[in-house]
């Protein structure tokens, strides 16, 4: 199933990659408390996201649990992306901020940018400014910091209105 996922054969990966083999959904169901089962949930969630099935994606992605600082925050960020697609911006902002807090310095800035954009969409310019300023102050060596000044200026202008 993992090979089919990596090859982009989404339907085969979800259901049954070959005769006698289990698909991601079956692995996730039968082995949900194992690392393999949790990873199967993540893969299934990614497939559902790519297919535009955001509620199904959220359900699967929320089953993925890990304590490392790369994959787990990326999955949390993807849940935020699903909520954006569903127009549920408050939930999206929460997931982006959670991802930023849990992630390593490589992933955190992109999560903060996403959170800032969602906060702007919600008209929560003070929260957007905090997210952008965190990139500027804490992640000043990250590539995202090179263009963050424009976002800060835009939000500060909104706050002055």
Biggest beta sheet summary: none
Mean pLDDT: 93
Strand content: under 5%
Q: Radius of gyration from the CA trace?
A: 18 Å
Query: Any low-confidence stretches, pLDDT <50, length ≥5?
Result: none
Q: Specify the structural class.
A: mainly alpha
Annotation, overall tally of beta strands: 0
Shape descriptor reads elongated
Distance, first to last CA = 54 Å
Helix content: over 70%
Alpha plus pi helix count:
10
Can you write the helix and strand succession as a string? HHHHHHHHHH
Would you mind describing this structure in some detail?
This protein is mainly α. Helix content is 71%, strand content 0%. It contains ten helices and no strands. The protein has helices at 2-7, 10-15, 24-30, 35-50, 54-61, 71-85, 89-102, 108-122, 125-138, 148-160. α8 packs antiparallel against α9. The mean pLDDT is 93.
Give the gist of this structure.
This protein has 161 residues and is mainly α. It is 71% helix and 0% strand.
Observed structural traits:
161 residues, 10 helices, mainly alpha, single chain
Question: What order do the helices and strands come in, and which of them pair?
Answer:
Layout: H1 2-7, H2 10-15, H3 24-30, H4 35-50, H5 54-61, H6 71-85, H7 89-102, H8 108-122, H9 125-138, H10 148-160
């Amino acid at each position: 199933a993992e090979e089919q996922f990596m090859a982009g054969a989404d339907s085969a990966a979800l259901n049954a990659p070959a005769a006698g083999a289990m698909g991601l959904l079956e692995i996730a169901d039968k082995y949900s408390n194992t690392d393999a089962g949790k990873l199967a949930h993540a893969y299934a969630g990614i497939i559902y996201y790519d297919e535009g099935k955001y509620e199904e994606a959220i359900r699967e992605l929320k089953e993925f649990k890990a304590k490392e600082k790369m994959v787990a925050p990326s999955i949390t960020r993807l849940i935020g992306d699903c909520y954006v697609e569903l127009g549920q911006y408050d939930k999206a902002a929460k997931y982006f901020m959670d991802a930023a807090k849990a992630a390593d310095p490589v992933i955190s800035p992109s999560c903060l940018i996403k959170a800032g954009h969602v906060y702007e969409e919600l008209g929560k310019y003070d929260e957007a400014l905090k997210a952008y300023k965190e990139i500027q102050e804490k992640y000043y060596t990250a590539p995202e910091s090179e263009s963050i000044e424009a976002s800060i200026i835009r939000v500060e202008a909104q706050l002055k209105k």
